[in-house]
Amino acid sequence: MKIWIVLEQKDGELHRMSREAIAAAQGLAAATGGGSVDAVLLGGGIATLAEKVAGGYALGSVRVADHPNLAAYTPGGYVAALSAAIAAAAPDWVVFPHTYQSVDYMARLAQGLGAGLLPEVTAFEEDAQGLLFSRPVLGGKLVAKVRVRGEGTMLLSVQSGAWAAESAQAGSGELVTLDGDLAAAKPDREILGVEEVGGEQVDLTKAEVIVAAGRGVGGADKMGVIEDLAAALGAEIAASRPVIDNGWLPRDRQIGSSGQTVAPKLYIAAGISGAIQHTVGMKGSAVVVAINKDPGAPIFSLSNYGIVGDLHEVLPALTKAIRRAKEL
Amino acid sequence: MRVAVCMKQVPDTEARLRVHRDGSWIDEEDLAFVINESDEYALEEALRIAEKSGGEVVVISLGPERVKEALRKGLALGAARAIHLKDEAFLGGDALATGKALAAAIGKEEFDLVLTGSQSDDVGYGGTGSVVAGHLGWPHAWLVMGIEIEEGGAHAKVTREMESGLNEILRIALPAVFEVQAGINHPRYASLKGIMKAKRKPMAEPTLEELGLNPEGVGSAGSRIEVVSVAFPESGAGAEIIEGDPEEAAQVLVDKLRKEAKVL
Ligand SMILES: Cc1cc2nc3c(=O)[nH]c(=O)nc-3n(C[C@H](O)[C@H](O)[C@H](O)COP(=O)(O)OP(=O)(O)OC[C@H]3O[C@@H](n4cnc5c(N)ncnc54)[C@H](O)[C@@H]3O)c2cc1C
Ligand SMILES: Nc1ncnc2c1ncn2[C@@H]1O[C@H](COP(=O)(O)O)[C@@H](O)[C@H]1O
Questions:
Q1: Do A105 and A215 lie in a common domain?
Q2: Is A175 inside a domain boundary?
């Protein structure tokens, strides 16, 4: 098997999930005959990083596309640069970290190449018929087992946290230039700028205790139970994305992949199902408490304590119990 | 502006899910279906763009008979027409197969803009809109949190969500496909008048032949991946579940948070 991995970098630094994806690609290589993995690195002014990668990980080669056209990410530039090289080498697998950037262009790349697409893989196993891949479906409530069919290159992305970055094998790889005409890999848009979401951010990263509201709260007019509990605890209020999208709280209170990443001493998640895009932002919390009416909600699997029930009954009782405890 | 909106119908996130007897997918009997969350936002954005610029919105959905309900809702909210890809051969596709069929339907007409959701709440490939863009040869952007059509309609200023609370502001030539992220606007509710009017709005059901597609190239036959089973995740080292009525459970939890976890 010929396995490639496309590493993601920004400003000359590897994206944290790139190492996890190296670990996954090395695992896939080991499971499919033990060949080496070839890495691809795209960008502008990335020679130092390329050398670091080539000297850091057990890779066959590190194929570098270093060009002003690729200095800022655009789907136009990246797809053109990768298409030519992938079409020429025809790898069986091309592994990506499942990031906002790779999702933005992977499907487009697959379509143009006539390759297959298998996004957000969390594990793979082997059975009599070959490889079976796991990926979350229905907001993480279920895990699907997926098989690949047909011939030709498959593009696969690796979900955050599924492989440990530390298990990426150290070693070295040969530094080479990625095939293709990079001058032709032109950006297909103008980048006007970058801005912070919601302007001035409330900094939730320093909070010791956070009470986080989910869609299960049920409405802006029902947020009182969250406010009361937060007041009793002296906690900050945060939320999952739908709470913000519905306008029940301002955008700077969002926790998750497109919000803030927090690691308080205590995180109380009320009416939050526990989708990966939320949990990446809070899984570093020391103690997690979940209150959810669905005993199968994925949030329970990464919580320390859970109460199964209606948060509109549980939270007021909890507020009372905390006030009682504080009076002692 | 003539705007096409791709809308998928998915199980209601509130629904209690059961795995089908054969284990291959969830049991869809008696399951409540809704319009995919980000697609509702895409439709609202399309309606606003069409209202501002003059033009029409066409809603498109690929799926079995039940998806007519989603399309009818789109018509009630203000779309002018609907297209339903309902042939059995279209069903069960991955992002590439579904995107190919949707692009064939869209390519039959002249649109200035295609909006999709950013991710479907069931299979969640996050790529169907980009595949549509690829077939049409148009630029695309994923996770769009703002669209401003420039005077003249040749370009759009687009806000795209990046990781960790950052947005990228882009200028993209039209026609294009924008994959709208939930939260871009506040979707309207259907009015009674809208619901009545929707009943008379046209709903086309193009066949594979009319779209120039082969049954082998679309749906599950045209897909490189196949879901063979689904299961509830193993709970592993899950939470300690505290039992009892709310008062009791709350008291036990507080005691544990103080004495065991020592965080209070
Ligand atoms: C690209 C991308 C980025 C995203 N970024 C983020 C992000 O940064 N942050 C984020 O949070 N999400 C993000 N999301 C969305 C994420 O995928 C989930 O949709 C979201 O986290 C779900 O929020 P939720 O748990 O509040 O709602 P749901 O998944 O709808 O869960 C609601 C929960 O409440 C429970 N419930 C309902 N009523 C009650 C009650 N009365 N009492 C107790 N429990 C009740 C239900 O059982 C359910 O478990 C992103 C999605 C995408 C595609
Ligand atoms: N069967 C379908 N019918 C109409 N639109 C779809 C369909 N499947 C996916 N889409 C669109 O593509 C987006 C992304 O879906 P996915 O790639 O499955 O995550 C959705 O939000 C929809 O806008």
A1: no
A2: yes
Task: Give me the residue from B131, B227, B249 closest to A314, CB to CB.
Answer: B249
Q: What is the CATH number of the domain that holds A211?
A: 3.40.50.1220
Answer whether residue B141 is part of any domain: yes
- Angular region, A34: left φ>0, alpha ψ -120 to 50, beta rest: left
Residue to substitute in B8, B10, B14 for testing ligand 1 pocket (most ligand atoms within 8 angstroms of CB): B14
Domain boundary among A184, A214, A237: A184
Measure A142 CA to ligand 1 centroid, in angstroms. 14
- Structure tokens that stand for A146 in this block: 């997926």
Cis peptide before B175 (omega within 30 of 0): yes
B116-169 pLDDT tens trace: 999 999 999 999 999 999 999 999 999 999 999 999 999 999 999 998 789 999
Left if phi > 0, otherwise alpha if psi is -120 to 50, otherwise beta: which for A93? beta
For residue A285, which of B238, B241, B263, B235 has the smallest C-alpha distance? Answer: B263
- Please name which of A309, A140, A121 lies closest in space to residue B17, comparing C-alpha atoms: A140
Q: Which residues contact B151 (CB under 8 A, 6 or more apart)?
A: none
Same domain, A315 and A208: yes
Number of Cβ pairs < 8 A linking chain A and chain B: 272
In which region does residue A171 sit, left (phi positive, over 0), alpha (psi from -120 to 50) or beta (all else)?
left
Which residues, 6+ apart, have CB-to-CB distance to A142 below 8 Å? A136, B17, B19, B26, B230, B231, B232, B233
* Residue B92 belongs to domain spanning: 2-222
Q: What CATH number corresponds to the domain at position B105?
A: 3.40.50.620
How many domains is chain B partitioned into structurally?
Answer: 1
* CB contact set of A66 (below 8 Å; sequence gap of 6+): A43, A44, A45, A46, A47, A50
Domain assignment present for residue A195? The answer is no
Mean pLDDT by 10 residues, chain A (328 residues): 97 95 97 93 98 98 98 98 97 98 98 98 95 96 96 97 96 96 96 85 92 98 98 98 96 92 97 96 97 94 96 98 91
Show the beta-strand stretches assigned E in chain B: 2-6, 9-11, 33-35, 56-62, 81-85, 113-117, 140-149, 155-161, 166-173, 176-180, 203-204, 225-231, 240-241
pLDDT(B100) > 90: yes
Q: Is the ipTM reported for this complex over the cut 0.95?
A: yes
| Sequence-distant (≥ 6) Cβ neighbours of residue A128 within 8 angstroms | none
Assess if residue B240 is contained within a domain.
no
Q: How much distance in Å is there from the Cα of A226 to the middle of ligand 1? A: 16
Which structural domain, as residue segments, surrounds residue A35?
Answer: 2-184
State the pTM of this model. Answer: 0.97
